[in-house]
Amino acid sequence: MAAPSDAPRRARRGDVASAPRTAAVWEVVSRTAAALQRAQPDADAPLTVLDVGGGTGGLAVPLASLGHHVTVVDPSPDALAALARRAEEAGVVGRITAVQADAAQLAQVVGPGSVDLVCCHGVLEYVDEPAEAVGAVADVLRDGGAASLLVAQRLAVVLARALAGRFAEAVHALDDPAGRWGMADPLPRRFDATDVIALAEAAGLSTSSDLAVVHGVRLFSDLVPEALVDSEDARTALLDLERQAGDHPDHPELASLAAQLHVVAVREPR
Ligand SMILES: C[S@@+](CC[C@H](N)C(=O)[O-])C[C@H]1O[C@@H](n2cnc3c(N)ncnc32)[C@H](O)[C@@H]1O
């Protein structure tokens, strides 16, 4: 695998690896990629990665900086233009392919069973049919490949609205089938953990294999006032707390309060 050598690449990877909102997810995604790579006949060969709704490349560029070949599928031309600029800046243009398309069209972008790792982060909230999108993700994965699904969780918004004094909106989000706090909620849909796991399993993605991970992300980061996280020590301690609370073996219920749920699921043999 080509080792990144220039400063912009290190900085870009450092961003995703250290920013409180992305560090825990990057840790799991990069660990999953490393495990998939080690399991290949040629452990140095880059992975084929698909980032569905990859937007401006916040995840695709660091993955390409690790040497992987990443295809970003996104319907937004503006996002893809920003991705191109980011890839150029990071020196990974040759390892990123951008395709303007919808999640439902994945099979027309890459062949079935051809991808090692599919990332679908912050997208299932927006697609017309989440089950169809997860099915398309499963179809393009090779057997044993991994899907990384990151979604907004319902209970986090219940807590956030309540702490903001918007009690009626908190109740609305508790009961609304789409997990929205009202008509003005900008997010079309939120999930409960059981929904995401059921979607994955129905598509042939195992959430119980060795490589699988289910953890809560950003349990406290969005709630703690910034003034309380104004030093490197405080940021490190907060990240450690997030890591521990996101999938604590004795307190699994904590994960359901996190802003996002991150599920890594493995494509079952066809
Ligand atoms: C919240 S952003 C997430 C971007 C990126 N994945 C991340 O985690 O930072 C949602 C992205 O999904 C894309 N998107 C919206 N609807 C989509 C669809 N039907 N299929 C694929 N991508 C979609 C948007 O253009 C946008 O880039």
Automatic annotation (TrEMBL):
Name of the protein described by the UniProt record: Methyltransferase domain-containing protein
From which organism does this entry originate?
Answer: Angustibacter luteus
- Keyword S-adenosyl-L-methionine assigned to the entry: answer is yes
SUPFAM superfamilies documented for this protein: S-adenosyl-L-methionine-dependent methyltransferases
Question: What CDD domains has UniProt attached to this entry?
Answer: AdoMet_MTases
Q: Which GO terms describe its biological process?
A: methylation
**Keyword Methyltransferase tagged:** yes
Could you tell me which Pfam families the record lists for this protein? Methyltransf_25
Alphabetically ordered keywords of this record: Methyltransferase, S-adenosyl-L-methionine, Transferase
User: Which molecular-function annotations from GO does this UniProt entry contain?
Assistant: methyltransferase activity
